[in-house]
Request: fold
Amino acid sequence: MAPKRRRHNVGSSSVGFMRTLVVACGLAVIPLQGAPAGWESFQTSNVHQQVPTKEMFNFMRRYGYLEKGPSQAEALYSEEAVVMAIKSIQRYGALPETGVLDPRTIRLMSSPRCGVVDQMPHEQSMRHRRYVIGSESWRKRKITYFIANWSSKVGEDSVAKFMQRAFNEWAKYSNLKFVRVYDPSADIIVGFGSGHHGDNYPFDGPGNILAHAFYPYEMQSYGGDIHFDEDENWKENSTHLSDGVDFYSVAIHELGHSLGLAHSPVYSSLMFPYYKGITQGTLDYDDILAVYKLYKEYDEPSSPATTPEPVPRLPDFVTEPLITQPELPEFTQMPNVCSGGFDAVGVLRGEVFIFKGPYLWRLTEKYRIREGYPVRIWQVFRGFPRDVQRIDAVYEREFDNGVVLFSGKSYWIFDGLNFLHPEARPITDFGLPNTLEKVDAAMVWSKNQKTYLFAGDQFWRFNDTTGTLDEDYPRSMDRWYGIPTNLDAATSVASGKTYFFKGNYYWLYNNERVRPERGYPRKASNVWLGCRVA
Reply:
């Protein structure tokens, strides 16, 4: 797929933050160990104070308080530079600027916080009395965003609701209009990922990095994007960190970075570096000044400089359908999903997805098609080849929630934001024979949490953790009593229900009795999609 947008040349006044260009929010826990070489004593204003530990020096470098240097470079820093760094840390933590590593400062350095640097090297940010501009603004007034995926801990509806609320707040003072689209070429991509998720800034599991964002036009196609760590305990309206991380409080902060704002030393600001728990969700005066500086003072040339512009009304949020289609071979007519014959069915992140041709349908909890669907496969699975015209099988891995998509002799693994491999992989990676043309169906069976692959009159059991087939496979489909061969799809849900599909029929399978329930098969499109098919 073509990149989301081409990279722009950015001047020195919009260098983002340090050399990393990524904003990574998280809990920076600094263990207090011994002093590094060259710092056995530390004297400040004739007061003997604690020597900074190696971890404290790492903190100072990571957040821009000291210049980065070679390993074991602590001895090269002057005491004056370290004292100034401590004062700056205290300033950004809303503490008295004493330059002394007192208990409050040490606690501050171990507090939950956003991982973007607080001080740009050589003051490359646009620093004002209080707020700080981290980069240039967006060069347009209509910004599109795409929610690539969501956490099962808060759900898509809540993620969409809180992201819209955050966009609304920033829109009040920025003269920007934010529009949600179902297109991964949007300006801002919002999504959840775990560990290595494609942008070279891996998440680290629960309790540390919470999220990260990118400034406008930085990191090529990642400019403006916001990523949340799926492994965090995301909650709605969480008042205490021990109960979970308040999603909205992190989202509205990250969006500030996505619009070009850096951290502010003002405690009441949304852009204050340290995580404060649940926020009231509105911009502080400091935030308003910053976004005004970016988007109102330097408005488009068509706006007369002498004419003050009124604060815009809140924009109406509408979902815009994708208008342009790729110039690739495609179906001339939308496949009739009510005729059955699904290519694949999968329960992904707790929601049902039905694939047919190059399209997918997403269902509500009441098995009705969600608004805005169907869409093309690549509109949901960012980076999926647009010339692939069907998915044969799909399942979600247990150990990392990666979504495995099969088509013909190839497969792809999607981690929620990106594909783990830049190119398609052969299905022989699963230990399947080279003569196999395709996988008919795949699922993780809720009875034993094992992965099953079906093709023709055989099936295999695969160990996703070791990446190997279990012994004594393949086996005959006769073992699945009452289930036909040459399946179209199969899926199993956490409630213990297992479903098999063929043609326009489906079977509900009793995992304990190991046979279909009475009264099956039934018409699939009638029950799953609400179609009126006789």
In short: The chain has three domains: 12-24+125-320, 30-110, 337-529. DSSP finds eight helices and 32 strands in the chain. The two ends are 41 Å apart (CA to CA).
